[in-house]
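Subject line: Sequence and fold of a protein, written as structure tokens
Area: Proteins and the way their chains fold up in space.
Start of record: The labelled sequence and token lines come straight after this line.
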Amino acid sequence: MSLKTTCLTYFVAIFAVLLASRHVIDPNSSPLKHIVDLSLATTSSVPSNIISYLIPNHIGRHHKKKDNGTIGSICDDFPRGFPPPDPNTTSYLCVDRNGCCNFTLVQAAVDAAPAVSQKRTIIWINNGLYYEKILIPKNKPNITFQGQGYESTAIAWNDTANSSHGTFYSGSVQVYADNFVAKNISFMNVAPIPNPGDFGAQAVAIRISGDQAAFLGCGFFGAQDTLHDDRGRHYFKDCYVQGSIDFIFGNGRSLYENCQLISMANPVPPGSRNVNGAVTAHGRASKDNNTGFAFVNCFIGGTGRVWLGRAWRPFSRVVFVNTTMADIIAPEGWNDFNDPTRDQTIFFGEYNCSGAGANMTMRAPFVQKLNDTQASTFRNVSFIDGGDWLQHNIN
């Protein structure tokens, strides 16, 4: 399948899900439309050619007509004086696909960031789709990706478990370093959308394996295994996560606040009991692991009939607090990975949730209806020891 066909299929699905959610974004007026237009403008299926098309090598060849009829540079509207001078605690690198600042590739900016630095490096990424696979190695801590809005700035690639020798390595962006921050940017995997059960079709948008990471106003777009919340303490606020099967998975200890979790699983016929998706699959393997996913003040919507979570490992731990759930949630709510021996060790809990999908009358017997004391463990940043690191990282 060509990139053009893949992106068309992918973004049509995005818009279908967005329109099905309570927070509708009009594709004709949304900044996300510019990413779509840019993707569909590319006809080559060879990644190197795509990158060359999206990221011109010489800005002098690229001009635009001004309102007064004169010809100017495409960079005329680029913010003046950017990047700013580096203060003592921060360094700035700038990425623009048209060549209007330091770098045209995000990976090139990551490579230029200092190793083992206590100083934060802010990589400012201009509007556009950056079609490249990104790796932030463990020796590059304290990096921030600063986009211009999750609907207008995106990093995308199309690896699958098959093409990358395993789900864990399929991520369009892979973060192994500590203290990573992302603001106002999307991470996408634009591999073809798989059917449930397709072998090797898992396609990760981002893998987060470093400690003390934060994501503010970010988007995560994919289908199966979109967001690999692998390990470490992580914070997500005001984010949009789209997927179908296990689309937030891993063994992280993470707090999701005010996030939209949107299923793009296929619609099911009225009255059908079929389940064709799951929001989470947590990988806690031992009672001694202090890990888990906590979702607070979130919204779950979209299409299909899905579980809130599957017990990927025997001690899987996931809770939803003050979350609005649409009617896509299956009445039983959760799945023990079809292994009843896990029912005594998993921790799946709900507290003060609302919406048609939050009715706990028919929940599976191993699901806990949390009381105030139990819920308090998960309700704020203390769950991820955020008082020790969060404000320092995001300021």
In short: DSSP finds six helices and 29 strands in the chain. The domain at 90-394 is CATH 2.160.20.10 (Pectate Lyase C-like).
